[in-house]
Amino acid sequence: MHDVVILTDERYVNPKDQNEYINNVIHEDQLVMDALEKRGYRTKKVAWSDATFDWTQTKIALFRTTWDYAEKFTEFSDWLMEVSMKTKLVNDYETIIWNLDKHYLTDLKHQGVNIVETYFIEPGDKRTLQQLHDELGWKNTVLKPAISASAKDTFKLSPENISDHEERYAYLIKDESMLLQPFLHDVVKRGEISLMLIGGEYTHAVLKVAKPGDFRVQDDFGGTVEDYKPTQAEIDLAIAAVNACDHTPLYARVDIVNDNDGNPAISELELVEPEMWFRKNEQAAKMLAEEMKAILGSI
Phi, psi at residue 90, to the nearest 5°? Predict the structure, then answer.
C-alpha cells in the first residue's frame, strides 16, 4: 500500500531518452517524492494511463506531470471518474473537472476576479471568424479551445491572416467550445507571469518569455523562463483567484498578464497538473509535502 502516488504520463516513467526538459520533469517530481519520503510516507511514480496499476493500493493520487491528457482526453476523462471512486485525488475531483474547461474563467469573473477579456463560442456555431470579429469589434486576437493544453490549436489572428484559419476553425467548432481573447501586447513585450501557491499561500514566481517572433511562452515553442519578483497587486490577484474556487486547491499556478489597459489579469488558473518550477524554489516542494501530511492524517 502506497501513501502517495505521483501521477505523471508514460513519457516520464523510466525514459530512454534524456534531455534538459525531461531531466527537469524527473527532478521536480523527485523533489516532491523526496519531501514526502522524508516525512515517512511511501511514494511511487505512476503514469495515469498505466492499466496494470491497482489504484486502490494508494491513499492519494497526486497530479503532477500528466501532460499528455489533452491528447487522450476521452480516455483521461473515463480514467478520472473511475479512479476518483478508488482513491483520493489531489487536487480533488470536482476541482479538476471544473478546471479542465476554460469556462471557469467566467466563474472567476463573476466572483470579481479580473480576467483576460474572453468570448466563448459554443459547438455548432455557424458564424465565421470574420463575422465574430466584426461583431466583437476586435482585430488582433488569440483563438484557442476551451479544453486544451500546451497551446494546442492556439492561433494568433489578425486581419492579414484570419482567412487562413477559417477552415481549421470550422472543423474545430463542430465538436468543441472555442474562445477568443484580444491579443495582449504585454505577452510579447514582457511575457507571462506564473505565480505558484501552496495551500493558498504564495511561494514563488517565474516570468515566461516567448522566443523572438512568437507569442507562445511555452517551452514547447521555444519559450524561456526566468526568476520573477511579483508586485503585491499580482500576488493579491493570484490569491483572489484561488479563493474564488469552490474548493480551495492544495496547489495552484496562476498565470497573469497585463491587459491592454495595463491592469494585471488572469490568463489561466492551472489546478490540474501545472508546472510548478519546484527547481526554482525547493522549499515549495516541502510546503506541498506538509500540506499533504495534513490530508494523510485525516484519512
Answer: -135, 120
CA–CA distance, 62 with 55 (Å, rounded to integer): 12
Do 212 and 271 lie in one domain? The reply is yes
Torsion angle, CA of 81/115/236/154, rounded to 10 degrees? 60
Residues 211 and 224 sit within 8 Å (Cβ to Cβ) = yes
Contact 238, 232 (CB under 8 A): no
* 292 Ramachandran zone, left/alpha/beta (phi>0; psi -120 to 50): alpha
Q: Residue 30: inside a domain, yes or no? A: yes
pLDDT in tens, 222-252: 567 889 999 999 999 999 999 999 999 999 9
Report pLDDT digits (tens) over 34-64.
999 999 999 999 999 999 999 999 999 999 9
Q: What is the CATH number of the domain that holds 126?
A: 3.30.1490.20
**CA distance linking residue 164 with residue 157, whole number of Å:** 9
62/157 same-domain check: no
| Cell 489579469 sits on residue | 265
- In the chain, the number of structural domains is 3
Is there a contact between 189 and 260 (Cβ–Cβ < 8 Å)?
no
DSSP secondary structure code for residue 115 in this structure: B
* Domain of residue 42, residue span: 2-90
Q: What distance in Å separates the CA atoms of residue 211 and residue 1, rounded to the nearest whole number?
A: 45
Paired strand residues for 258: 264
pLDDT digits (tens, 9 = 90+) for 95-143: 999 999 999 999 999 999 999 999 999 999 999 999 999 999 999 999 9
| SS3 per residue for 213-260 | CCCCCCHHHCCEEEECCCCHHHHHHHHHHHHCCCCCCCEEEEEEEECC
